[in-house]
Amino acid sequence: MKLKELISYIKTKPYIFGNVIGFTHVVEFQKRSLPHAHMVIIVDEPSRPTLETYDKYVTAELPDQSKHPKAYATVVRNMMHTPCGKNINKKRPCLDDNLQCTKQYPKQYTEETFIDSKGFVHYKRRSQPRSMPVKFGDYYADNPWVVPHNLYLVTKYDAHINVEICAGVQAIKYLHEYITKGSDKSQVKLSRDQAQDVNITTNGNTATSPMTAASTSTATSSAPTVGQPQEDNTNRDEISTWVNARYISPSEACWRLLGKNLHSTFPSVTRLAVDLPNQHRVYFNNNTTIANAVNAAIAKKTTLQAFFELNASGDVFAQNLLYIDVPRHYSFDKKQKKWVKRRRGINSQNRVKGIGRMYFVPPSAANMEKYCMRLLLLHVRGPQSFDNLKNVNGVQYATFREAAQSMGLLANEDEWHFCLDEGYYAMIRTGSSQVRDLFVTILMFCTISTYKQLWDNHKVQLSEDFIHEIQQSQAVLQKLTDAQLESCYQKALIDISRKLMTHGKSAKNYPELPQIDESLFNQEDEELRSLFDQEVVGYNLETLATEVRIYEERMNADQLQIYNTVLNSVNNPGLGIPTCFFIDDPGGGTGKTYLYHALLTKVRAESGIALATASLGIAVTLLPGGRTAHSTFKIPLKTDQTSTCHYSKQSNTAKLLKEAKLIIWDEAPMTHKHAFEAVDRSLRDLMSSVHISYVGKPFGGKVDVLGGDFRQVLPVVKRG
Of 185, 258, 512, 532, which sits most exposed with the smallest number of CB within 10 A? Predict the structure, then answer.
C-alpha cells in the first residue's frame, strides 16, 4: 500500500521530481524477510535535472533541525550510514576483508555538487553542517555519513528512501538483475537422531537456524519405524541428507500468494516482430498435422503484418507513423490480430503512451537482409506491405539491402555506432561477451573504416564484465584507477582477438585498434591453450612408437582382438564397417585401461588425433591427455531431448572433433543419455560439412570406443 501511494505521489506531484513520463520498479526481499523496492524515475525534457538543480531534488546533508524537525528526525533514524572502519567499528557488515567500507563511506566533504569525469554525481556535503552531528556510541557523524535523499519524501513517509541522480542505463541493468538472477537458494542438512542446523545460503551469505529432531524425522525417509530396533548411526554420513532447495521467506511467500507484482513498468512496452516474408515463428503441438500447421502459419498475423494492414486500410494518421511509434497511439488486439486505436486518456495531457521496441537483429552476413528490413522500418513511414517497404522514390528494389543502400542508410558509419549502442541495451542482461561478438561481426562483415573510433566510443561497454569483476573483488563501486581500466580494455581486446581468430583473422588485421600487451595475451593463451594444439604438437612420435611396440607385445588375445578391430575401423573409414564399440568391464581389473592406452598411443604415433575422455574426473587422470566429456565436447550442464553441444563450427573444438580419428569415452554408463544424444546430434551436424552421408551415422561416423560397467548403475523405475 505504501509503495502504491509512493508511486502515485511521485507521478501526480510535479514539484517532487518534475513531470514523470516513465518509471520501472522491482521488489526485493531481504534475508531478514522484509521487502523493499528499487525504482528508476524518468521525467520529460523540461523537467530533466541539471547540475544547477540537482540540490533541489537530492540532498546528502543533515536537514536544518529548526526548519525541518520531522525530516531531521527521519534522517537521523533512517538515513545515516552507521559509522564503520578500522578505527571506528570493525564489526560492521559493510566492511570488506581490508576493513574498507564497500559503500564508500564516509564520503568526502565538498562545498558544491559536481559531476566527475565518469559521470557520477558527488553531492554537496559541507564541512559546516546546519545541524548538530549525530552521536553513534563514542563517535559523532555528520554530512559525510548521510545517505542521499529527497526532503519531501523523507518528511512525508518517515522511512528510508534513498534517492540518487541516475548516471546511466546501468541502473536499469542493476534493477532487473533482481528479476533475472533466479531465486535464492538454501542448502538444508537433515538428520534423524540429533538437532542439526539449517544452512540457508542466499546470494553468497549464510544464515543458520536450528531444526529440531522431530521435524527432521518427519522430513526424511530414514526416520525410524515404531517397533523396529534403532541403530546408533550418529557418526554415519549416510544418515544425513543434503537438500538443495529454493528459499522463500514468509513475507515473499505471502506477497506471491496475494498475487502482488514483483516488478512493473510504465508506460507499457510492446515488443514488435521483425520477420522476413513467410519466416515468422509459428508454434504447434506434437499432435498437429502438417496441413494444420501450415494453415495456422498462413493465418497467423504478427505485429508487423498487422502494421501493414493498418496502413493499407486508409488510416491517414497511421500512415504518418513509423513502426516503433504505433504502440503510442494504438494497442495490439491479440485475439483479432490487429492494431486498435487507443481510447483511454487520448485527450489527457498525461495520457499513457505505449512504447514500441523492435527485436534486435545483428548485422551478420546471415542476417543482413533482415537487418536492412529493420533499418528501413526505422525510417519509412506508413509502408503497406513488404514490397512497398522496398519501394524507394518510385523505384522497386528486389531486396531490402538494395532499398536501404539507395536511401543511404548503409553509407553512414554512424549506423554501426547506433547498432552497437542498441545491441548493448538489448544484451544488457547477458553480458559484454555478446556485445564483443557483435563488435567482431561488424568488423568482419560490414564496411567500416572508422573502427578505431567505434572502439573508443564503446570500449567501456565492451569491457563492462571485466570492470564489474574488479568492482566485485575490490568493492570499488564508482572509481577504478586508469591502470585498472586499461587492464580491462586489454582483456576485452584479447577476447575480441580470439573471436576474430575463429574467422581466420586477428587484431593485427585491424592496426588502428590499440595494441595488445603480448605478455597478457601469451599468459592467457598458455592458460587457455586449445586441446587441438596439444593433440597436434604435444607428443613425441618416436617415444610413442616405442611405447606401441611394448603395448602390442604384452597384450593378451582378447585385448589384441579388440585392438585390431578398432584400428581397422580407424584406418578404413567409410567402408561400412562398425565404428561404435563398447568395452564391458565387470568389476574392474580386466585390462580395459591398458587397452585404452594402447589405442591412444597407436593413433597418436601415426600423427592422428585421438581424444581421451571420461564421464568422471577421477577416471580422466588414468588416461594420457584425458579430459572430461563435458570439457571435450562442451556438453551443457543441463540437457534434454533437444540439447546440442556449445561450440561453433569455426571454433578450435569443432576443428579438433572434425580431425579426430578416435574417441575413447570411459565410464560411459555414468553419463545421462541426453548428454550422449547431444554429442551425437552435434557431431552429425559438424561432419555433414565433410560429407552429407555422415548425418545418418552414429556420432557423425567417428570411431567411438565406450567403456564401463552397467552393473554399477542402479535400476531406476519412473515413479517407482
Answer: 258
Q: Report the run of H or E that residue 660 belongs to, with start and end.
A: strand 660-666
- Give the C-alpha separation, 359 to 379, whole Å: 16
Closest of 706, 711, 714 to residue 587, by C-alpha: 711
Task: Tell me the HSE value of 367 on the side-chain side, using a 13 A CA sphere.
Answer: 14
Q: Please name the residues in contact with 211: beta carbons below 8 A apart, sequence gap of 6 or more.
A: 188, 190, 195, 196, 197, 198
pLDDT tops 60 at residue 176: yes
Helix, strand, coil % in the chain, rounded to nearest 5: 40, 15, 40
CATH class of 535-712: alpha beta
Q: Do 616 and 649 meet the contact criterion of CB atoms below 8 Å apart?
A: no
Measuring CA to CA, which residue among 442, 392, 445 is closest to residue 415? 442
Distance CA 623, CA 612 (A): 6
Q: Return the residue matching grid coordinates 526505422.
A: 378
DSSP for 95-145, please give it: B-TTS-BTT-PSPPPBSS-EE-TTS-EE--B-SS-SSPPEEETTEEE-GGG
Report which DSSP code applies to 201.
Answer: E
Asked if residue 72 lies in contact with residue 43, where contact means CB atoms within 8 angstroms, the answer is no
Sign of CA dihedral 279, 282, 287, 292: negative
Q: Which is nearest to 144 in space by CA: 232, 82, 220, 51?
A: 82
The most confident of the ranges 117-121, 211-215, 408-412, 561-565 is 561-565
Domain boundaries, the chain: 2-179, 269-406, 414-528, 535-712
Query: How many CB atoms are closer than 10 A to CB 500?
Result: 19
User: How many CB atoms are located within 10 Å of the residue 466 CB?
Assistant: 19
| Residue 91 vs residues 32, 100, 650: alpha-carbon distances, Å | 19, 11, 53
Residue 237, judged by CB atoms within 10 A of its CB (0-12, 13-18, 19+), counts as exposed
How large is the average pLDDT for residues 290-311?
86
Alpha-helical regions (H) of 211-249: 213-219
Query: What's the pLDDT tens digit per position in 414-470?
Result: 777 888 888 777 765 556 788 888 888 888 777 676 778 888 888 888 888 888 777
Residue that wins the pLDDT comparison between 227 and 242: 242
Q: How far apart are the first and last CA of the chain?
A: 48
- Whether the pLDDT of residue 526 is over 60: the answer is no
Residues 234, 194 contacting (CB under 8 angstroms): yes
